[in-house]
Amino acid sequence: MKKIITIITFFIAVTVSAQNLQLHRDFERGHFTTTFELFKVDKYGNTFTFVDFDYNAATGTSLAYYEIARVLKTEKMPIGAHIEYNAGHTNGFTFPEAWIFGANYSKGNAKWGFSTYAGYKAFTGAGEGNFQVTGTWYVNLVENKLTFSGFADYWSEKGDFAFGYTDVKVFLAEPQLWYHLNKSFSVGGELEISSNFAGGNDAIKGRPTLAIKWNI
Q: Where are the beta strands (DSSP E) in the chain?
């Protein structure tokens, strides 16, 4: 699974809507991933959504994962209300369905920006309360040419899940570097850094990709 929050999530100062389609080659796991993202700003806040599909040569589409997040905020509010829904499936298991309710703070301009939220995470049927903290960022290292962006998540998974009772802390980060060929296309990649993610162990694992992005 990938979760990719790129520069479009901070374009509040310069645009009201953006979307893109990405194709990643994961060298560690030997498959391709497509990601579609959409970000839209309105007078009551902003909406961000994405969907991932993994493609395995032997089994076809092996993963589908979806998130949608809404921040309720006006220009006079320094902090917004964050509401998010996550769900997904693979050929082997189902990602636990989750809702997140929290507070969001963001700041940025055309050169740099960040956004962060902390919230209560409710996994359906888990029977335990959990949390998630997320930070996203971008830095335009070379104007209109080179951008460093990404996100970092830290959350708890405690409770009764389909795969049994668990009590772990999960870390997932995906720093990205993009070289912009023009306004429509960028090339680059990311490094997925994770611990206890999707049934993994607590050892830190790094998985690189190469990618192309079409800014639609």
A: 17-26, 31-42, 45-56, 60-72, 80-90, 94-108, 112-123, 130-142, 146-161, 164-173, 176-180, 185-195, 205-215
